[in-house]
Design brief:
CATH class: Alpha Beta
Number of domains: 1
Oligomer: single chain
Strand content: 15-25%
Order of helices and strands: HEHEHEHEHHEHHEHHEHEH
CATH architecture: Alpha-Beta Barrel
CATH superfamily: Phosphoenolpyruvate-binding domains
Shape: globular
Structural class: alpha/beta
């Protein structure tokens, strides 16, 4: 029998925060490390990451092994892709570019079984332990626990954010400042006042609808610790694998070089 950790749901039900890491590299080992170091979820980025469905399956398995949730950022709104990652055992999905309430309703539908949604049903998937012993219970658990998030990262999405946030079955929204800054002709300037104004609108819409605002730490004004606290975010993405490795490797190289240079200079005196 497969264990469903529901780390994010449990944290939210206890009014606690859940912390995660974005993974764009197809590495189950890195997902396991996140679990073993205390994180609650792996945000598996299949939109910008270099992984295929087989890689995603192994990364979900690594999340299971280390006791954390796996949220897959799907590349688009394709119902078949959403179904396949959920059948593989993902805790939930995150869909990019929600522009309208109809977009949000469609991804919710793709993530829920009939009659609530349109997700195809199968009693033999990894999500149910490869063969269910009680389909009725597994189906009800999946519809209850599967998390559905969306990104607001377009001008149209910001304009419609109140209606989007109010769609039944949507668990939360993520603000995508980089794409929005590009759409506004700001060349990716996530610190621009117009981008910050849009973020505040998204935060307010989540509060009005009673859903979660998923924060991305370190990205734009809203990514500061003060901004995350002010938004009341209970789901926080702390870092990402590419940025983390790049920063640490660059810093380690610089400190090693400077330390050796100092030792060499001292020996020459």
């Amino acid at each position: 029998m497969r264990t469903h950790h529901r780390r994010i749901r449990n944290k939210l039900e206890g009014d606690e925060q859940a912390f995660g890491v974005v993974f764009q590299l197809p590495s189950p080992d890195l997902v396991e490390i996140a679990g073993y170091t205390g994180y609650d979820f792996a945000w598996i980025d299949a939109e910008h990451g270099t992984m295929d469905l087989g890689d995603i399956n192994h990364m979900i398995r690594a999340a299971d092994a280390s006791g954390i949730d796996a949220i897959v950022r799907v590349p688009d709104h394709s119902p078949s892709f959403i179904q396949r990652v959920l059948d593989a055992g993902a805790t939930g999905i995150m869909a990019p570019h929600l522009r309208t309430a109809a977009d949000a309703a469609a991804i919710v539908s793709a993530a829920k079984f009939e009659p609530q949604g349109t997700r195809g049903a199968c009693p033999a998937t990894r999500a149910v332990g490869h063969l269910t012993d009680d389909w009725a219970a597994d189906r009800l658990r999946a519809d209850r626990d599967t998390l559905v998030f969306g990104l607001i990262e377009d001008v149209e999405g910001v304009e419609n954010v109140q209606a989007i946030a109010a769609v039944p079955g949507l668990d939360g929204l993520v603000f995508g400042p980089f794409d929005l800054a590009m759409a506004l002709g700001l060349h990716g300037d996530v610190s621009h006042p117009d981008v910050e104004k849009a973020r505040i609108e998204v935060v307010q819409a989540t509060k009005d609808a009673g859903i979660e605002y998923v924060a991305i730490a370190g990205f734009g004004a809203g990514g500061s610790l003060e901004g995350i606290a002010a938004a009341g975010s209970r789901i926080v993405n702390v870092s990402g694998d590419r940025g983390l490795f790049y920063t640490v490797l660059k810093s380690s190289l610089a400190s090693t070089k400077s330390g050796l240079d100092a030792i060499t200079a001292g020996a020459g005196k």
